[in-house]
Amino acid sequence: MTDILVQVDDLKKLTIDKLTGAGLNAESAQEVADVLVYADSHGVRSHGVMRVEHYCKRLTSGGMNRAAKISLGKISESAAVLDSDDGMGHSGMIAATKAAVAMAKETGIGFVTVKNTSHCGALAYFSEMAAKENCISIAMAQTDSAVAPFGGSEKFFGTNPIAFGFPVEDGAPVIVDMATSAIAFGKVLHAREVGGTLPERTVLDENGAFTTDPDKFASLTHFGEHKGYGIALAIDALTGVLMNANFGPHINAMYGDYEKMRKLVSMIIVIDPAKFGTAGYGQLMAQMVQELHGVKPAQGFDQVKVPGEPQVDYYADALENGVAVAKPVYDFLVS
Fold first, then answer.
1. Could you tell me which of 149, 155, 159, 68 has the C-alpha nearest to residue 121?
2. Of 122, 68, 74, nearest to 96 (Cα)?
3. What is the pTM of this model?
4. How far apart, in whole angstroms, are the C-alpha atoms of residue 180 and residue 232?
5. Catalytic residue positions?
6. Beta-bridge mates of residue 202
7. Contact by Cβ (8 Å): 234, 220
8. pLDDT in tens, 153-177
9. pLDDT digits over 278-309, tens only?
10. Strand partners, 177
11. How many CA atoms lie within 13 A of 21 on its CB side?
12. CB count in 10 Å sphere of residue 260
């Protein structure tokens, strides 16, 4: 299926226009557009502007607060709970990251959990926010049921992503951002959008058999079998259960129940390495990256890359040549 190349600023404007047209306030629309276009321009199309149509449907159906009033309640000098007021998850996590960075600069660590929120997009965006402030970060979010637990044939936990961010002096930060499922659910949506297929052994059909057909999707599998399953459980325990909210199959579905608020929980931990006596943290990370680049590559590889580096390369190309957007998605944005 044909892709349309769109300049970054133009894609943001199209996204903002659609979201404000659905009633979202202008400030939140700008934040959501930044996060979505960040994903698309870094090659993570499963978390990009393909989501706009869904967000608009939920906004107009009453399943998200179009004029949310975010509030922050401090537990201590290093911990807080942010109430997203059932607004856009992207805006909630941006506010949480700013608050966590500020606390980390004062005390060494900032822990902010976000309740009453919704889908927040690519966690890498928030990790990069913290890295630009020379801080380390760990971010995670729960999602609705989509993945079969190890040993099971029906979905229970969500894809429950987790991300780590590390500042690198005079270089792009190292960003580790991954779902705990073998692939992100957005990749199923993208495959449907473009008529593609899915990687082997990542998706189960309704009978619990592996399939590569996105239209036969019933559940995803966890990466690393029992390992990914264990991390997914831990993320739900650290988010939804910690906040006395829902978990796994009890979470309102993203695609469905459009009139219901999602009531998701996400969180971010930010660490200021300078407060731990490591003012040269970025220099040491730069050394690590350089030494990894120097590792002899395996057959079929030109160089060992660090996590996030392929996305940085993709971004450079997108800035020069435009962001690839599937034609059906583009048609919706310009309609």
1. 159
2. 74
3. 0.94
4. 6
5. 119
6. none
7. no
8. 999 999 999 999 999 999 999 999 9
9. 999 999 999 999 999 999 999 999 999 999 99
10. 163
11. 14
12. 15
